[in-house]
Design brief:
single chain, about 375 residues, alpha/beta, Rossmann fold, seven-stranded mixed beta sheet, four-stranded parallel beta sheet, binds 6-O-phosphono-beta-D-fructofuranose
Length: about 375
């Protein structure tokens, strides 16, 4: 009997998405027992019935292409902007799943997508997910695809920033994506030989970062590269965030809607204030060291372009494994990386968790061994 597979990509795009779509599509078509259809722009496309044909011709030219041929969005089924309103469109999505005669919906995305996919699974849809994000912060998988490519891009940027920092005797602060996780800044910082690496998992002290630069100055090295994760916080801000998160959890537990609203507002305010953190950090380091400082924000440059060989390989492994699980009727799971193998992890074990850098991670230890400062 033919199985009908729907695929969508949701959340921020990430190199390797097309390689994953290709792997799922080609493996499904090769089985001779499956048909496949794409939905455009994440969950929104399924809600609006916007599809894309995924035949051999379409699938055969996308392995190396960046972005996603399906398009993506951060729309959530239960909170979708429709006209001027935010509405729960879950039922419409479930109806469309049935209307397209789907046997399974493959949702490719990061932490948010895993949560949204789980909600649909709870509504009775057959769901299977793949973990993608440059942030590498999805729980229960060794790694996510997109991370390796973004780390390569950020490393190359650090390499290039080195020569200009050296020539001008400057501090160059380079802000690296990663949301609340420090994997990208850590990986690229170590690979690119950054002198200071600041990540959210290790709250920093400004003076300690400045001291590391001063020590280099005393040795006659008048330039420094500071790799800072976009979510990095100083010790004081990290405490404030921790307190707010504790209050949020307590208000949730006590079902205190007023309290929840208040904390949500405070968190919003805090996030807004943190937006300029790297600008302030760059200015402070200049003041404290007397070295001219510049800031480079890599931003979306890290998400664009062709995936690395490692990400193409990973996407292909996960995509083909996904079709294997579909063939066996294994649903409600995320296809995860476990060393050289893949495994199916129940979605309820994935959601509500984040894969953060353990402060004693071997990459951190190696960096410390070669003299990198973490600002602690
Ligand atoms: O999750 C991937 C990511 O690139 C994060 O590193 C970053 O914080 C965020 O997405 C940026 O989102 P957007 O593309 O919506 O601005």
């Amino acid at each position: 009997m033919n199985k009908h597979i729907g695929i969508l990509t949701a959340g921020g795009d990430s190199p390797g998405l097309n390689a994953a779509i290709r792997a799922i599509g080609k493996s499904a078509l090769s089985s001779g027992r499956m048909q496949i259809v794409g939905f455009r722009d994440g969950f929104r496309g399924l809600m609006e019935n916007r599809t894309m044909r995924l035949d051999r011709e379409v699938l055969s030219s996308i392995l190396t292409r960046g972005g996603t041929i399906l398009g993506t969005s951060r729309d959530k089924p239960h909170k979708m902007v429709v006209g001027a309103e935010v509405m729960d469109m879950t039922d419409v999505i479930c109806d469309n799943y049935r209307r397209h005669n789907l046997d399974v919906l493959v949702c490719i995305g990061g932490g948010g997508t895993q949560k949204n996919a789980y909600r649909l699974a709870q509504k009775g849809l057959n769901i299977i997910t793949l973990p993608k994000t440059i942030d590498n912060d999805v729980a229960m998988t060794d790694v996510t695809f997109g991370f390796h490519t973004a780390m390569e891009i950020a490393t190359e940027a650090i390499d290039r920033l080195h020569s200009t920092a050296h020539s001008h005797h400057r501090i160059i602060v380079v802000e690296i994506m990663g949301h609340k996780a420090g994997w990208l800044a850590l990986g690229a910082g170590v690979a690119g030989g950054a002198d200071i690496i600041l990540i959210p998992e290790i709250p920093y002290d400004l003076q300690s970062a400045a001291n590391a630069i001063r020590k280099r100055q005393l040795r006659g090295t008048n330039f420094s590269i500071v790799a800072v994760a976009e979510g990095a916080l100083n010790i004081e801000d990290s405490k404030i965030l921790h307190d707010l998160q504790t209050k949020k959890a307590k208000a949730k537990e006590a079902n205190d809607s007023k309290g929840r609203k208040k904390v949500a507002e405070a968190l919003q305010e805090f996030t807004k204030r943190c937006k300029g953190n790297t600008v302030r950090l760059t200015e402070e380091l200049e003041k404290l060291t007397g070295l001219e400082s510049r800031l480079t924000i890599l931003g979306h440059y890290q998400r664009g372009g062709t995936p690395s060989a490692a990400d193409r390989l990973l996407s292909t492994r996960l995509g083909s494994a996904c079709v294997g699980y579909i063939d066996q009727g294994i649903y409600g799971v995320m296809v995860a990386v476990d060393g050289n193998k893949t495994k199916a992890v129940p979605l309820d074990q994935v959601i509500g968790k984040k894969n953060l850098v353990p402060p004693d991670h071997p990459w951190v230890k190696s960096a410390r061994d070669v003299g990198t400062c973490f600002g602690d």
